[in-house]
């Protein structure tokens, strides 16, 4: 019995002599501060989270931890901003040489679009060709444009060279994506291949722009052309530009989010 009593007393003494919760919470907070100073932000946040979990009664260090967490989050967002700004500059530099043959215009609708200099409508009024369509958000598609004295009622195109070919989906005449108009003896047919209706035609042209590509306009009648070099380049470059523009838009959206978060944290 005496031995049991002595062991109990020893346990009480050991517990009473050990570090108190306030000391342990303080040690964790100071470790979090050091980790923050060393820019080890994730580790610092883990230490801060553990204070409230392990020592829920230590209000002082829980509060100081939350203040430090706010400081860490602000610093992270500032670093994100620096990274995004540098990434944006790099993407804009990548875009610049690709834009040499394109103009930005709002003369052909309410929204600004990019048009290849050789494909401006006023220069292509009576041509049969494939046109590249691109806006500043990076949305890209092509259209087939037929001009002649006879209607062919085309709703599909085939691009080919040396036994290699790809054929678009059919786009039914609807007055919008497939429309027709005439002026005296001249007939115009315009088909828009949006939302993947090109069925790989764009990729095929962009990958084989240096080949002698032929276009078959398919409908009730067929019509054939050999693609002009600048038309192939318009589709190739417009397609590449579309990816860069989408990346730029994404980066700008992320910058906006970071600015909003910094504003919220600084309020």
List its salient traits.
2 domains; 267 residues; rod-shaped; single chain; six-stranded antiparallel sheet; alpha+beta
Write the layout of secondary structure elements.
Elements: H1 2-17, H2 21-37, H3 41-54, H4 59-98, E1 102-105, E2 113-116, E3 129-135, E4 140-148, E5 156-161, E6 164-167, E7 178-183, E8 186-193, H5 201-207, E9 214-218, E10 222-226, H6 229-266
Antiparallel strand pairs: 1-2, 2-3, 3-4, 4-8, 5-6, 5-9, 7-8, 9-10
Helix pairs in contact: 2-3, 2-4, 3-4, 4-6, 5-6
Helicity, as a percent range: 40-55%
Q: How many DSSP-defined strands?
A: 10
Domain module count: 2
Beta-strand level of the residues, as a percent range? 15-25%
Number of helices: 6
Q: How large, in whole angstroms, is the Cα Rg?
A: 33 Å
SS-based class: alpha+beta
Basic shape: rod-shaped
Low-confidence stretches: 1-15
How far is it from the N-terminal to the C-terminal residue, by CA? 65 Å
**Order of the strands making up the biggest sheet:** 1-2-3-4-8-7
**Helix-strand string:** HHHHEEEEEEEEHEEH
Give the mean pLDDT: 91
Main sheet properties: 6 strands, antiparallel
């Amino acid at each position: 019995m005496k031995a049991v009593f002595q062991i109990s007393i020893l346990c009480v003494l050991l517990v009473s002599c050990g570090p108190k919760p306030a000391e342990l919470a303080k040690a964790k907070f100071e470790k979090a501060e050091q980790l923050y100073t060393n820019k080890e932000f994730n580790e610092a946040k883990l230490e801060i989270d553990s204070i409230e979990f392990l020592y829920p009664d230590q209000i002082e260090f829980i509060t100081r931890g939350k203040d430090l967490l706010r400081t860490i989050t602000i610093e992270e967002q500032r670093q994100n901003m620096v990274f995004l700004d540098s990434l944006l500059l790099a993407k804009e530099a990548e875009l610049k040489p690709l834009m040499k043959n394109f103009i930005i215009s709002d003369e052909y609708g309410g929204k600004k679009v990019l048009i290849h200099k050789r494909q401006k409508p006023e220069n292509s009024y009576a041509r049969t060709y494939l046109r590249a369509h691109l806006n500043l958000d990076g949305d890209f598609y092509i259209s087939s444009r037929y001009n002649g004295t006879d209607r062919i009622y085309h709703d599909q195109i085939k691009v080919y060279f040396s036994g290699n070919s790809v054929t678009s989906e059919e786009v039914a005449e609807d007055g919008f994506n497939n429309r027709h108009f005439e002026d005296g003896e001249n007939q115009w047919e315009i088909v828009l291949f949006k939302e993947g209706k090109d069925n790989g035609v764009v990729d095929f042209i962009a990958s084989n722009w240096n080949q002698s590509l032929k276009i078959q306009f398919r409908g009730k009648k067929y019509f054939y052309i050999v693609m002009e070099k600048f038309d192939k380049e318009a589709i190739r470059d417009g397609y590449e530009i579309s990816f860069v523009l989408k990346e730029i838009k994404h980066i700008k959206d992320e910058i906006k989010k970071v600015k909003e978060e910094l504003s919220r944290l600084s309020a």
